[in-house]
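Let us practice reading a record.
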Amino acid sequence: MAMGARGATAASESADVVILRDDISRVAHAVVVGRETVNVALQAIAVGILLSLVFMTIAAFGNLPAIVGAWMQEVVDVVAILWALRASRGKEVVPELKASSWKSPAVTSQPKV
């Protein structure tokens, strides 16, 4: 894991994860996002295997013609891919680490009434 965008070329090229801001709280956020991504990927694999098993069981008893079985496999693939794409939605997995909390608070002056 590399941290910082300036002067760390060698570190950022060899790291698996690069956090561009010098803020240690981003590490916790990166770990949570990584775990959530792995969970979604495992769910997509499980859904694909489960649907394949269901359709193979139906086909094994002769209730599904071969061409329909081939199309059902394509449907299973599309469902698994769409399920895995849930990881790219950018769901807020750590609400207390919102981007607004990483910025320094702006000083505003309010007129006196």
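A brief commentary: The chain has four helices and two strands.
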